[in-house]
Each structure stands twice: as C-alpha cells, then as structure tokens.
Amino acid sequence: MAKLFSGKKRGVRSRGPIVNASTLKNTFDRRSMVIGTIQGGIGVLLAVRMGYLAIAENEKYRLESESNRVNLTLIPPRRGWILDRNGAPLASNRADFRVDVIPERLMDAEATIDSLGKLLELNEARIADIKQEVAQARGFAPIEVASGLDYQQFAALSVRLPDMQGVVPQRGFSRFYPTASSVGHLIGYVGPASEEEYELDRNPLLITPGYKIGKDGLEKQFEQALRGTPGARRVEVTASGRIIRDLETREDIQGNPVKLTIDGPLQDYAARRIGLESGSVVVMDCQTGDLLCMASMPSFDPNSFSDGIGSVEYAMLREDQRVPLRNKVLKGLYPPGSTVKPMHCMAFLQEGIDPEETIVCGGGRRIGNRFFNCWSNHGVVNMGKAIYQSCDSYFYHFAQRVGFDKVAAMAKYLGLGQEFPLPVTSQFYGTVPTPEWKLNKFGSEWQPYDTVNASIGQGYYLTSPLQLAVMSTRLATGRHVEPRLTMNSEPRGFNQVDFPDDQVSYIRQAMSDVVNGPGTAGRGRLPFEDIKMAGKTGTAQVVSLSVSDGRSGPWKYRDHGLFTFFAPFDNPRYAGAVVIEHGGGSGAAYPIARDVMTFMFDPQKGIEALKALEEQWGGTAQQRLDQRYAAYASERGTTVTPPPRRDEDIFDQVEAEARLAAAQSEAIAGDAIAPRPDPAASGSPPPVPEAAQ
Amino acid sequence: MNRIIPDPIARQPWGMLIPLFLLVGFGAAVLYSAAGGSMQPYASSHLVRFGVFLVMASIIASLPRELVRFLTYPAYIVVLILLIAVEIIGQVGGGSQRWLDLGFMVLQPSELMKPVIVIALALYFSSLPVGLIASWRSLLVPGAMIAIPVGLVLLQPDLGTSLAIAFGGGVVMLLAGLPLRWFVGAGALAAAAAPVVFFFGLQEYQQRRVLTMFDPEADPLGAGYHITQSKIAIGSGGIFGKGFNNGSQSHLQYLPEPHTDFVFATMAEEWGLVGGIFVIAVFAIILRWGWKVALQSRDRFSNLLASGMVATIFFYIAVNLLMVMGFAPVVGIPLPFMSHGGSSMLTNMICIGALMMVNRWNRNAPRGGIASSAG
Questions:
Q1: Which residues contact A519 (CB under 8 A, 6 or more apart)?
Q2: By CB distance 3.0 to 4.6 Å, which of A153, A272, A574, B333 could disulfide with A149?
C-alpha cells in the first residue's frame, strides 16, 4: 500500500514521464493483488463466520430451529365433575365447538371481531363486550368469543381461518350445570384465568384457549382437584401455522370428581320453591351432618356466566335489589329473631331453670325499672308455651336472670357466630352479642334493653342461614353435629352428647307444638299422618316501627321471615333453616320449609305443591330468569354499564355490600325493639323486581 | 480469430469449468430440495438456463477483440435506453418496475448494465492516453458513465443492483490506475455522506433493514426475521447438515426466499459446514481463475475487462453471503450459480463468458508481447 501511495504522490495534474503503459500495468498488478487479497480475506471471514454459526452456535440454533418447527399445544383437561350425593352431576362437561381470540395475534382486532360476529351471528351487545375485553386485555390470555357452536358455523369459520390471524376455533368441552341457577351460588362457575391469576400461577395451561378455572363457589374451592392433567399435542407447523403432521399426542387426564353431600333434586326443589322471594334454604341430615341443600335465590345462571359475564346480564343482576350475586346461605346475615328461643331455653335448662316454672306475661314484662312489650298478652307462661307461643316476656325474664353471657355461650356453642370447616370460599361469622363484645365494639356498657333485645334474637344478633341450620340440627339431635359438604369427609360430632335426653325431648315437643299444636306455625303441618315437623318461627325487624310496620311498604324495610325446623320431630332425620329476606314475617318462611320437607318424604307430593305455585309465578326460577333477561335486554340493552374487568371485583363488591346490608338491623339495636306478631303471614307479595329500583 | 467453433475441448479452461458445473449441479440439488423434493419449478429451469447461458457464454468467448471493442459503446447506449424505457413504462403504468416484458422473456436491463459498464469503462480507459490517467478526463467521463445508470436504477428503486454497478465501475477505475487519493477522498466523502443518505436518501424499509443488521433480535418478527431465520438455518445445520431434503427451515417456510436470496442458508441447513466450505471453495477457484486471466492478459482493455468481471461476480457472492450470515443488510442480491433466477444467471454467465473470451485472447496472443494500449 505504501508503494501505491508513493507512486501517486507525484501530483494529480502531472502527466510527467512517471505515468506510462508499464507503470500503469504495474499499478494494475499491485492493485489487483490488493483487491484479490481483500477478496480472499472476505472469503476466509465468511468461512470462519459460517464455522462459528455451525459449530459454536450450533446448539442454540438447533434448538431455535426445533422450536420453529414443532408447535406444542396443550389440550385442556376435561374438568372433573361435581356430583351430588347420589352421583348425579351438578356440574358436568359438554362436548362443543368453541372460538377464542388471542388479542396479541390479532392484526386488526375490530375488523376481525366484526367479521366473526357476522359469521357466528352474535348480537351487538356481545360484540361490544368482546371488543371491550380485547381492548383491555394484555395480550397473551385468550378471550372467548363463542362456545356451543354448531358444526356448520364451526366449519364455516375454519375455512376462513387463513384470513383471520389470532382466531382459534377448536373442539373442546365446556362446563355444563344441568340445574343452572339452582346451584349458581353453591357451585360457582368457571371462566378464563385472569392476568392476576396467571401472574400468580405461571402455568401455561391457564392461557391455553378453551381452558377455564373455577371462579367462585365450589368450582374455585376444588380447583386443583377438578383441574386434571392437560394433554399435549406436538405438531410440525409451517411458518404460517399450517399443521403438517402430528408428531405425538398425549391424551388429557380428566380431573377428579368431587362428590358432595348435596341432594341435587332437593337443592333444585328448594331453590325453585323460594319462588319470587329472596332467601335461602339449608337442609342437613341429622344422622351424618350432611348438608343436603344450600339453596340461595335469586341467583345467576352459571352456564351463562361461564361463557363470560355479559354486560347486560351483569347490569340486570346488579340492579336487582334482591342481590342475585350474593350467596345468602353463607353471606346473608340476619337477626335470628325468635328462632333462637328454643336454643335459649336450652341455655336456661343448662342453668338449672325448671321448665315448669312460670311467669306472667302481661303484654310485656318489667325488667329492672322499665317495662318491655311482648308481641301479645300470653298470661301464665311456662317454657313450652314460651316456645310454641313465642312469648317474649318469658325470655326477657329468664335471660335477665341467668345473665346473657350464659345464653351467648350456648349460642356460640351451637354454632352461631361461628365458622364451620367447610370447603367454601368464604362464610360470614355474624354476631352473638355479649357485654364484652359491645364494650369492644361500641365502647358502651351493656344495658338491660340489650339483654331484652338479644333474648328474642334481635338487637346486635346476626346469624347466617347455615348457622341457624346447624343450631337446629344440634338442638334436634342433642349431639354436637358438624356440617359436612363432601362425601369423603367423616361425619363428626356424633359422639359428643351436648344435652341430656329429657331436655332434648322437652325442646322437641315444644317445637313440635309450634307447628302441630297451638303454636305460631299452624299452616306448617306436613301432609302426612305419621311424620310431624317441629320448628320455630322468627320475624326479624330491620327498621324501627316508625319507619315501617314490617309487612307492607318498601320491600327493603319489611321484616325478615325465618324458620328453623327438623322432622320427624320425635326422631329427627332432617333439620334446617329457611330465611326469607324482607318476607314480611315468618309466614313467608315456614310454608317453604313445609314443602321442602314434604318433598323429602314424598317427592311427588312436594312437586305437585310446587307446580301449582310456579304456575302463578310464571315458570321455574330458571325460566323466569331467562324471561327477565330477555325483557331487560330489549329494554335496557344499550345503556348498561359493563361489568368490572375482573370477576374477583364483582364478588368483592358483592361481599362488601353483604356486610353493609347485614349492618341494617344494627341501626335499631340502640333501644328496645317492639316485637312483631310472630306468626304473621307474608304481607303483600314481594314487589316485581323490575319495579324495585 | 474468426472461428465460430471453439478450440479443441482440451484447451477449454477446465480448471474453472468443472468446479462451476459441480456448483451449478449442487445448486440444482439445493433447489430440488427447496421445491419440496421436486425438479419443478426451480431445479429444472435452473439447469436449462445454465445450459442456454453456457452456450451464450461460449459464443461470447468466441467473439473477436475488434468486434467487442466496436460493439461496446453501442451496447452501453442500448442498455441505457432500455433502463430509461423501464422508467418510462413504470411511470406510465403507475408504479415502479424493473423489467421489460419482451414477449418471449422478461428482461431486467439493470442486470445487463453490470457487465456492460465494466466493458465500457475498460474500453474507455484503454483508449485514454496514458498520460491523461491522472486528469479530470479519467474521472468525470467514467464518473458520468457510472452515475447515469446508477441513478436510473436507484429510481426503480433497486439499491442492490445500483451498488453492484457502482462497485464494478469503481473497481475498473481503481485498477485503471487513477490516483489512489481520489478513492481515499471519495471514501471519506462517502463516510461523511452516509448518515445523510441514510436518513434522507433511503426508504423507510431500507433504513430498517440496515438497522436490523446490527441487532436482528430486536425485531425478530419484523425486519429482523429474514436474518434471524437465515442464521437459524445455517447454525442448525452444524457440520454435516440435516441431510438432503430434511431442512425444516426451508421446507416449512420459515426461511424467506429459500430458492433465491437465501439459497445458501437452504443449502447450509441440509449440507452443513461441509457444503458451505465447498461452495466458498468453488467460488474461490472461479475468482482465482478470473484473476489469473486478468493478470495474464497483455493489453489494458483485457486487463480491465477481466478484472471488472471478476469484481462483478465477487460483489454478488460477497454481499449475498455476508447478508445470509448476518453481516450485511438484506438487499435483494442472489448468489451466483445457485440462486434460482434468470437475470442473475444471465449476468454471471456473461461475466464468465467474457472471462473465457479474454482467456482465449490470451492464449492466442504472443506470450510476453508488449501490451498495447491501442490493442
């Protein structure tokens, strides 16, 4: 190179003797040598580079080439079934065709969804919902467009796939709940995993199109057991995603079934029997502690929730003041009212009170220096009459005498204010008020009127229907029965005798008289000669007398109707509780208990009673839900607010509101409550939900 | 000199031709695999074209020096007119185009310009009086001869081909003995202008390709896709490759253009490093032979003509291989004798034919004779 330079340094303009044919030839030779050498150098560089790629980085690129070529798709496992005690499915799987979209692979999301909508004949609300979901999605999680497609639609879609990037049609299984809304709160529903759930559990299965996890209720609780093991399919694919051949397929392993103690037909019957009311029915088996029925109505349709909660559907449920999203069995808290009276009597017996000891009810009774009203004037009252006539004065007197601490201890011992070891996502404790509790919570001393209120199940007392059912079972059997929800858990508590037989039979007799004797629930008699139901009515006041008489007026202010029961009264087989929110009194509750028990002992008779009622109501619960949805959608379909993005938000909100609702009756606990006539029949029929807002 | 029939077969440059035949045959095998194990549509037409263009090359090889010199400038003018015609037809037809449909074949005039610019410059410099080699005449006229076609091709726009034309022309100018510092100055100027050209001269997609070269993984599904997949193909081949017809990258269409620009990657995946070394070695043999022909020739015209042809072939090879191995941006330049495509085969066979022609002239010229600038 130096030589080259020196040859040229002789001046640009110079045409001197240095430049001639032979120097040019020399220059040519030198320069071509240099260029040739550079070319050779590049050749060596290329060879070395190739050696580097092919040898040093061979491992890395071999892997990348394999991951290009082989596509591993997970086959979502079929979810385990949820069975009732007799093996009938409460949640099963249905083979169907479905379509998902994967937002991050969509080229033009709007256009793709529009053409999908046209192809699958989706309605506009649904299309809008999908668009919103896609817009909010973070990309990797698939979003369900539709399931339950027929083969024609599926085939039509499959043909157009090359033009629709990010659309995943597949054959799969979807969750199916045969009894629909009857089991909504109990079983819950399934849905695609949310981003948060995926962050928590980085299982690739969670973002596999078509895979859903339990979102609420037992579906969520038993998620791991129900999940199963995904299958896998290794396929060779082209760059455009066309499958060349299957390399290997491993079948999925279905999740394990979960067998519940629930009696499917009973659950369905009870849910339907609640009718237009808002409430819950819990039935337990007195010989095993099995929860046979945990019905809470009105409810949502888990089949429809599992396809994604539509905004119209969500708005309709949200606006319903009977809170169809709340599981009232576990999260409804109500003052128990007079239903706690037999239990209080048991506390008195334990404290040595003679059941034959009488007091005089003069339309009320003086406690300390103040006169407290009874709902009626009962004259001379012993324990039995106090129960079947639900005389308040008796309880004012004896609660004051033994001290409410003792009574509260009994209440807690029998399950009130307690959580039970059940596989449920959450349950509310409620409140059994004691002087200590009141001091902690409000910083004020326990007053005589607190004892008076609490002695008849009012004031700060708050219980859930499940607690009332357990209390009823423990009273009826005299054993410390623990409720159980799955067949694989052991019945517990039967070896623990709580009360002597004579006390148990005294209470049983008194509670039988409530229904079969001169008691407050005369219309609650079972239509059988040989089977008698025992029970206790309760009417829980939620607002002061000046606001509402509890039977008419705004639904929100009406009294709760409660009833605890067991049957047959002399050898209890089943026990339970019925709570009707704002039913206007216990008259709304015990006919339901009567029909449910009738169904237990003679299904045919129970069904006949229900059929007649449903004719008045306009169909079964599910039919009415569907009708309401159709009406609502046509009326309000375009103006609804969409549901929260996360399902968790929905139920957090519902739970917060449930706590708020439970505090309603606390507002009137600051003074003595004027007791309501207990055997009051249901007031006017419950308001039509549409007009309720 | 006027013999149409070539010299006895023994006198052909077999040292170059046999490796070339092997390479074309190997190319056909790779194309057979790229077509999914079929002679159609690539391999058979590849071989047919090679046969046709080999005949053309032998005809070129037999051309007498005087005729070549006589035809050179007219040929340059004709190709220039064709380039302008392409531009006009493109404008009229609305949208750029690079080829002319002649009815019986599709002609890409810019391809023809690559060898033609080399011959034209070789002729110009050989006619230029020796003393003027450091004057403006040796710069401005050839500069214009290069700039006009390069400009036209850039308008198409075809960056790769215009670079190839400029490279061929530049090498001829360098070898013609122009003062080196002009090149140094031009290089410095180019380096200074590069950022300006990059930001204002290049199309957005071209900018992206250049950036991608430095970091292909930054955008593996976009502009970096080609380079990434090509490297995967080459790297996954290992030493002996995945075996004939077993390349998943090409067969499953992960590799873009497996039969044209990325044919080397297709080959390397199935034949591994061994195949790659073979291809590079054959190219080395061909180029070395070309240089030998250039150095052996005794007159300036042949010198420059032969070396310009070598440079043109080299440019194809180097840019293509640098590209598939991730050292150069993705420009549409095929690999000589292996890629499927008529135009590149035509150009390269013209180059080979011209080299064979010079080789024949060398044989016929008295050894050791004094080169004459007048030929």
A1: A387, A388, A389, A390, A513, A679
A2: A153
- Of A40, A55, A65, which is closest to B273 when you measure between CB atoms? A55
Q: Determine, for residues A54 and B272 on separate chains, whether the beta-carbon distance falls below 8 Å.
A: yes
Q: Reply yes or no on whether the pLDDT at A6 is more than 60.
A: no
How does residue B122 score in pLDDT terms, banded at 50, 70 and 90? very high
**Alpha helices by DSSP H, A121-168:** 124-136, 151-160
Contact A236 B252 (CB under 8 A): yes
Chain B's closest residue to A27, CA to CA, is B177
Distance CA A566, CA A561 (A): 17
Does residue B369 sit at the A interface (CB-CB below 8 Å)?
no
- Cα dihedral B282, B288, B291, B292 sign: negative
Would the CB atoms of A69 and B248 count as touching at under 8 Å? yes
Please state whether beta strands A82-83 and A258-259 pair in parallel, antiparallel, or not at all (unpaired): parallel
Residues A261, A240: Cα–Cα separation, whole Å: 51
Confidence of residue A138 (pLDDT cuts 50, 70, 90): low
| Domain carrying residue B320 | 15-363
Check B175 against A58: CB less than 8 A apart.
Answer: no
Q: Do B180 and A8 touch (CB under 8 A)?
A: yes
Torsion B48-B52-B55-B60 (CA) sign: negative
- DSSP state, residue B200: I
Q: Judge whether residue A538 has pLDDT over 50.
A: yes
Calculate how close chain B gets to A22, using CA atoms only, in Å. 9
B145 found inside a domain: yes
Catalytic pick among A147, A296, A311, A338: A338
ipTM for this model = 0.89
Q: Quick check: is B271 in a domain?
A: yes
Is residue B9 included in any domain, yes or no? no
Nearest residue in B to A14, CA atom: B134
Whether B373 is in a domain gets the answer no
- pTM here is 0.68
Could you tell me which chain A residue has the CA closest to the CA of B251?
A238
Average pLDDT of chain A, as a whole number: 84
The mean per-residue pLDDT over the stretch B183-211 comes to 80
Does residue B142 sit at the A interface (CB-CB below 8 Å)? no
* A300 contacts: CB under 8 Å, gap ≥ 6: A181, A184, A189, A313, A317, A324, A325, A625
Q: In whole angstroms, what is the distance from residue B73 CA to residue A103 CA?
A: 61
Q: Which residue is listed with tokens 């050779």? A: A40
Indicate yes or no: CB of B300 within 8 angstroms of CB of A15: no
Burial level of A70, CB count in 10 A (0-12/13-18/19+)?
middle
Q: Tokens 């093991």 sit at which residue?
A: A229
Question: In the structure, what pLDDT confidence band is assigned to residue A3 with cuts at 50, 70 and 90?
Answer: very low
| A67 belongs to the catalytic site | no
Q: Inform me whether the pLDDT recorded for A682 exceeds 70.
A: no
Query: What's the token pair of residue B258?
Result: 């497996």
Picking from A76, A102, A98, A262, the residue whose alpha carbon sits closest to that of residue A182 is A262
Is B140 near chain A, with CB under 8 Å?
no
Is there a contact between A622 and A182 (Cβ–Cβ < 8 Å)? yes
How far is A40 from chain B, CA to nearest CA, in Å? 8
Question: CA Rg, chain B, in Å?
Answer: 21
CA distance A503 to B202: 99
CA distance A540 to A332: 13
Q: A536 has which bridge partners?
A: A564
Calculate Rg over the CA atoms of chain A.
Answer: 36
When divided into structural domains, chain B yields a total of 1
For residues A44-72, give the mean pLDDT.
90
For residue A278, give the 3-state DSSP assignment.
strand
- Joined together, the tokens standing for residue B143 give 């500069």
Question: Is the pLDDT score of A529 beyond 70?
Answer: yes
CA separation (Å) from A467 to A440, A508, A597?
23, 19, 19
